[in-house]
Amino acid sequence: MPKFILNKTVFVMMISFALIGLLGLSIRANQAVEQMRQEVVTHAEKELRVPTYDAIVYTPLWVEYLKKHLDDGTRVIGMFGPSTLFGTTVRKGENTSAGVLQAHLKDSRVINLGISGGRFTETYALLASMIDKVDYVVFEINYGIIVVSDNEPNVVVYPSLVEKLGQPIPRSWLADFPDKNRESLPSNAHNWVTSHLLNQWTLYHDRDAISYRLFKTRTPMEKIRQEVQKNENERKGIEESYSPMYTAYDNMNDAQQEGIDQHYEELYRWNKPFDPEHSFGLFMIEQTLDLLEEHQKQAVFYSAPLDKEHIADKKLFHWSEYTEAMGAYQKLVESRGYPFIEFNQEAINTIPHEYYRDPAHLIDQGSYRFGEILYTRMKNYGIAAP
Questions:
Q1: pLDDT of 33 higher than 80
Q2: To the nearest whole percent, how much of the chain has pLDDT over 90?
């Protein structure tokens, strides 16, 4: 009997110590995340976007702040899209399209909610989370995202981001797309437990932010993979060639240019011909349009400008493929009463080749020039209205 009591006492003590330790970790985690949030807010208020070096971690923190502080009566213009909108290759936030629009629209607040590497699913989740806080939506459609949205079996690239935004993509949306991986989306039960229980706990909800604070990666496993790859490269004597993201294509060496061309040739290659009747990307834009209509939001869509000159020179894709696919998107958008501005069907580049880092991404000078063009074109659609 005494032995049983002793064991029971030890067990209770162990549980108590564990709970105390967990409480201590939770307190420290709350403090760390709040500090990160303040750092992100300070940066974003000044630079008009979250820090570029890992926007995936910082964007949810920025969104959480915005949802609490956008009720001062100022007209809010939300800009949504991929890395070309966010400005991954643009050094200064003032040179992004959002930065240029903000300079013109001084009585409005322009929010850059582009997401690097995200698909239409992540952009939908961002829009859904902010739909009640924005008055006017600017939505950029990038041709590369159109292709990968139909090519890739997984429909979400950043599941933790979608989860943290509280806007899960239902598995039922994949019912008509047998080629898509249903397991790439969490089940309804998982979504319920996450939204009602786990996301109330900082150690779970902000685990990627905490990991980034500690390891400079979104997960400890990612850090391990990076170190393994680094050691493997050192063992083989491989020296990675690097150029800053804001470097123009023409200023790179031959190996860097070749790497970019190979990447984009693969990115733009369709696994099978585009089919508007079975396009998951087109389906996601349809869901986006439903969301805008439901909340009665003004919006304008446009195609991200491509380096047509370079694409033709390197034969990265057949232009007829672009015309067919983007034409289907434009037709859908306009059929629902929203304007669509096409920047890639003119005979020459909207922005000269020397201002591109790659076939899709503009550097500062090009991004600024495009922002001015976009603003001029959008004035016809009510964006400058008081």
A1: no
A2: 62
How many Cα atoms within 13 Å fall on the side-chain side of residue 126?
A: 32
- Quickly count: other Cβ atoms within 10 Å of residue 358's Cβ: 24
pTM of the model: 0.86
pLDDT in tens, 4-26: 444 655 545 555 545 455 445 55
Nearest-angstrom CA–CA distance, 126 and 99? 19
- Residue with the two structure tokens 């289907």: 328
Q: What is the C-alpha to C-alpha distance for residues 163 and 238, in angstroms, rounded to an integer?
A: 38
Cβ-contact 358, 249 below 8 angstroms: yes
Instruction: Quote the radius of gyration of the chain (alpha carbons, Å).
Output: 23
**What are the pLDDT digits (tens) for 157-175?**
988 889 889 888 999 999 9
CB 248 within 8 A of CB 357: yes
Give the integer Cα–Cα distance in Å for 353 and 364. Answer: 13
